[in-house]
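Progress report, Aim 2. The chain analyzed during this reporting quarter is listed below.
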Amino acid sequence: MTRSVLYDIVHETRYDYTEPVAVCLNQLRMRPQTRLPWVECERCSVVIDPVPAKIDMHPDYFGNMVDSFAIESPHESLTVKVSSRVKVTETHPFEAQSIPSLQQVIESVRLGSSDADLSAKEYVFASPRISLDSQFADYARDAMQGCTSVLDAVDQLTKRIHDDFQYDSTATDVTTTTEDAFEMKAGVCQDFSHVQLACLRSLGVPARYVSGYLRTLPPPGKPRLIGNDESHAWISVYAGAQLGWVDFDPTNACQTGLDHIPVCIGRDYDDISPMRGIVLGGGTTTLSVRVDVAPVESEAAAEAITE
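Predicted structure tokens for the chain:
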């Protein structure tokens, strides 16, 4: 029996301004993935207040759906609410004999041995937030000693980062470089993911950044808190033409599963930040974000997702 979980997700972003904004132009990357075989976005709605004068939806280079909009009337706040229903299905464990070694993946990508290898190769190179450096390669090699398969190697690196780095939301911010986070051995999920990407790419292994949501579970006997879930980030590693892409979460030292809901894929955070844009006016800005990830627990929904 293949297990699935159906989620209702609400991601609400609000900007409050001390002075009126005359014009704003924004892009949203908040629609859940539709191109991954284990994820199905059943519906998604975007509500923007004030209502934009112009709005357009289109895929970006990486296949993420982007909502671009313009508000051309004065406003003192901006609220964006994205509501989605998503089904995540578990992936089956891989057969040991089908898993290539780390070196086999590196070599097949270097040679472009298949169309899949060639497609993955663009994720080997440096990107705006990821540099290739011997310090990252050496750290990865040390963590991967004795590993016989690419998945085992990446799993060991995932656990090493989790053990060596301290989760500290005050240590870094969105502008912190990967090199600084690596030196401090501290940060948040974005930093952990960037460090792991730098380690893998410095070895020649294709790896990409994934943004999404993580279902958080309340302590035993406690109710789930509405709005207490998180935007999250993790990495996806290319494990060869037969296995394709496999996701790992260095913040939680695990391979991703039913609690992870992917939204966007790119080279690093700069490719897939949830909301970006420019404003004319506004003065000082206050930002508030609320994310709620709620499993759909009705009996009818449970029957619908059990195969």
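Residues 22 and 74 are 4 Å apart (CA to CA). The first strand starts at residue 4 and ends at 28. These observations will guide the mutagenesis work planned for the next reporting period.
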